[in-house]
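Why do we care about 3D structure at all? Because function follows from shape, and shape follows, mostly, from sequence. That is the central idea of this module. The next example makes it concrete: a single protein chain, its amino acid sequence, and then its structure expressed as tokens.
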Amino acid sequence: MAANDDVDLSPAALRLESPDGRSFTVRGPASECPRVGEYLAIDGADAPLAFVEEVATDPAGGGFVAGGSLVGDTSSDADGRARWSQTPVRPTEASAVQRLLSAPDEQLHLGQLADHTEVGVALIPKRLNRHTFWCGQSGSGKTYALGVLLERILLTTRLPMVVFDPNSDFVRLGETMSGADAESVAALADREVVVLRPGDEASPLHVLFKEMTPRARAAVLRLDPVVDRAEYNALLGLMEDLDAVETPDIVGHLLSLGDPDATALAQRLQNLGVLEWKTTWAYGAESATSVIARRPAATVLDLGGYDRNEEQLTITLAVLDDLWARRAERRPLLLVIDEAHNLCPPDPETPLGVAVRDRIIQIAAEGRKYGLWLLLSTQRPSKVHPGIVSQCDNLTLMRMNSRDDLDQLGSIFGFVPRGLLAQAARFRQGEALVAGGFVPMPSIVRVRGRVTPEGGIDVPVPMP
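And the structure:
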């Protein structure tokens, strides 16, 4: 059904039933069938809108039966709920939908309704204080769309963020493309975006071994507190000694002690080649944790510059541990974890992986009250630990063909109409379902264009 100001409300028009003032059903011929996600206007002054959540074949007489929720002002009768019986409904004017979907701060504008390009959808900035799950299969436009959101946060809020960027997709977040509007260019120039890269002389990405927690150091050395109890205990006993020694001198210091367990620790360091991670260790210089502590508008950690997964995990663990140690400061921070399946899979294979996953689980469960909010982006929800996904209150879903993944999302995000989830397999590139507290109503959005260039792009197929 298309929006139309001159709609026939004769007896043949669609009629709505709402016995409780909350939900509704509409029946009619197949030719008048509305789409899931469409809004219908109820005849009468100050009536709410009817949001279509499900559409099915009417078993009573062919045609269709649609159902959903009444949204807007429904307070009319003595008990606070109006009821409708055989009330005419019609397609809703775009202006009414726009009023409903306009967030208090329209500047955080993500895009337009996919079926009504004249209707913009703005997110609610204050609701970014809930964890957000962002997913879509390869080719859906997930990374591009995530870049749009990060831009809008930078341009319209003062919420600082840390971006864990394994594919170097957001390393140009502080730049603007030619042709970008002057207002956005000026606003972005006023925001400090720091990009830390491995081996970069000006802005290196590295951490201090001596600033890491005992558990983190043990994870780097693949020490189990039970299986490797002697070496683990030696590590705990030598913490103060090691803190006084620069990282390159740790092996020599341990060997000089003449203690068998200290010697074993030195051999472990040498065998694992941990001290050969030249771009990982700060060696007394400013670490990534110190940069983040002063809260730039955005700090992008270019994890894609490391050759070893262990180095990516080490940097991530050091940063997350430091933020958790400072949690009592209650300084708001958005933690954007792209390709989250790399950092918090259900079953990590190494002690470092387990330590990173467990810290993210802890932040997901307890971080909100300290101002640590997660934004997790991945291709498949099944590849992220369920204890983390279940803590998310906001959802952005792009094209997803897997029925199992859609069923999983439906069971976790019960506030999202199943009919909308089912449409994800048919989304075009750049279309997304947004739902949860950060959007006024669940909506299928065509994501707007970007102001900043993408950092990593697909390699094109060579053509003659």
